[in-house]
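This follows on from our talk about sequence and fold. I would like you to pick a protein and set down its sequence and fold. Go ahead and set the record down below:
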Amino acid sequence: MSLSNMPRTKSYDASELDLPDYVWDEYQQSVPMSTYLVAFVVCDFVNLTSGNFAVWARSDALNSARYALEVGPKILAYLERFFDIKYPLPKMDMIALPDFSAGAM
């Protein structure tokens, strides 16, 4: 499974690239953003989705993920009104990482 801040446009078997056990995903081009916002995560997470919001977490952390899915869209809507700036991306994936010392990005 791969994620991007943009919608997936294509997904296909990568066997033609000599990677028979892999899937190749392509996404719409992202808007320009700071490089510190890039993340690579390798995990065995499950997700909860509501509209254009998704929360990814360990299966034993789904209760916390439900809460994040409930409040995330409300917080984003509040910030859009407060700053009078619309969120520029078509979707949001939140990933609950255990023991992430930086806190947030």
The chain has a mean pLDDT of 89.
